[in-house]
Amino acid sequence: MISGLCMSSMDWKAVRQMIFSELYSAYYNTVAAVLAAAVSHPLTDSELRRIVGKNAFGESALHILPALKEERWQLIRTDGTTPIRRRPDMPLTMLQRRWLKSIAMDPRIRLFGDLTFDFPEAAPLFRPEDILVFDKYSDGDPYEDETYIANFRLVLDAVRKKYPLHIEMASGKGELLAVRILPERLEYSEKDDKFRLTGKEGHYASTINLGRIISCRPSEEPGKYRREPGPAGQRGRQKRVVFELVDERNALERALMHFAHFRKQAERTADDRYRVTVYYDREDETEMVIRVLSFGPMVRVTEPRRFVGLIKQRLADQKSCGL
Amino acid sequence: MAYSELIKNFNRIRDYMREFYVYGFKNRDEYTQKSARSYDDERRRLESWLGDYMQFRQTPKGKNVFISVDSRMCSHNPLYNGWKAKSFTDGDITLHFIIFDILCDSEVSMTLGEIMERIDGYLSGFRMPRTYDESTVRKKLKEYVKEGIIEAEKKGRQLVYRRARTDCVLDKDTLDFFSEEAPCGVIGSFLLDKLDENEDHLAFKHHYITSAMDSEILCEIFAAMGEKRRIILENMNRHTGRVTDDHVVPLRVMVSVQNGRQYLMAYSIPFRRITSFRIDHLISVKPDKVEEHFEEMWAELERMLPHMWGVSTQGRPGRPMEHVEFTIRYGDNEPHIPRRLEREKRIGRVEHLDRNTSRFTADVYDASEMVPWIRTFICRIVSIHISDRELEEQFRDDIRAMYELYGLEGGETNDI
Questions:
Q1: pTM over 0.95
Q2: Which of A83, A103, B170, B409 has the greatest CB tally within 10 Å of its CB?
């Protein structure tokens, strides 16, 4: 049941150092990319700038370029050559191996293939019983079901290689449906604990719950699919709700954390009052209504009028229940 | 000291990140805990690390800075970038690439003296070649042995070093998924940095990214749990700002996927009971001695779970459980409502009384944790009973307050 790592208390300080380490830093990775190019040919200044710009943070060039040019980091000579002979690479750290051992114990790993991490010297960083997600929904996808795994792998392959699929599935009402879809992405919801396939059926955006797929195969029929720009294209599907919040019973923190995964803005309007704007996908409107309701009288929706109407309707229906 | 976008300690930036991401309504003057210069430096760092995710809004009281991320639109947690900004010395980075070029594969093994000789060869072509003394290189090698990337082995009287053999195939989709979904996912992000592929095939809905900021604390908690070791939590009360040292036995990490919070369930040694600690409120974790009764404490938590809606536990021994019961009705065309009740009920029981009515019941340590969920059924709640009468009355008062807020009681829409 309980894990038993062999780490001595003397190594405790190392744990702290391990995760926040320059070994994983953007600078080390960027310099590795610079050296990977320099081992094959002398680097020009513009090439150096391009590599740094691509790999590091926005302001990093201001620090990395002078450090290399002024030979404070003695890795690139003035003529653009390097004394390093081979493309840099680094073994996996113990922390990385331990994390991989942990994810290998998650049943969802099999969705991605028959992967093994053969590190006998590394104990898992955490074990499944160390963690409990206590509020996910109970009807999540069957990750250990062989048919589900086979479907998932085929769908993922189609997303990677961009070919259409013929899918037979059960609708929400239990009817058998057949669709032809050009897959674009697999989307996972941690709250629902489900994967959904997003893609195009002809000209229309489509979403299929993987758990509802009965069978799927590559489609041999040619189809006309309109490619939309990936998730960024979803901006056009966004709606917004504005609500006023009074910070009682810790409502401010609860609401801002609850809605944290959305694009949002918060502003203070008075000492304990705030105006919060949340942008959400139009297909999730009902979910947004009930999520707003969960905050009770600490939140009052002010815009748009339509959303206010949805809340009022629910409250009017509640009133008719006699509570 | 001159500004650098790299940092030595993560804790200060962790506070700013949380403020900018979760809240984002404060102006510069309100960050009074730190100096104005500190604020400007931290804001500048975050701008550099996070790019367009850092946004600004001009208000009458000044400029508000906030981090705005729709996590459904980005396949990679941008907050991980903070963990990739650790500072180092000029000597560190130079030595790092030279050592791994010298120990180019796991078949090459050398003594410290042999490595020292080769290092000089690497540096000779520079105008003012850097020199490393033996103790510096030995210290670096020792550090890398601890990290597991170099192995040291005694041969005769000498220690020889070689790079560790850690061959393994890394799959981008696997890492993309678990770097977002698994605890300490930042480590997966470090692994992703090793790959050249760029195309993303996965997206994430209802995805909270705030736990990224607590990766180090969580990692330390896991290490202690693995050793069944007591720890001392440096814990901050966010309302009062008071910091306490809590002596506990860490038992389990509980994660909410409905607000992104992570809690440590731990046995409090002074209070002799199991309680929860917000991981984002922890400043540090210090190791203490190994706990002999770890297994019994773990089993006690297991026994408590069927009565925990969230993370609240029994306030004091012998305190009675609270009973919660509510009934909802739904139309013939709403079969999804009883299904919703079933899949969201966690620990409770659901009875379907007839084709249009279902009842939920549960006995819990803290009924107040359930109230937000019960409110999501507003429009169909026909009865509710909570053994804590005060809480039940508050629930009813809240519903009435909502009627008033939206003008359903008395006609006019009122202020909150």
A1: no
A2: A103
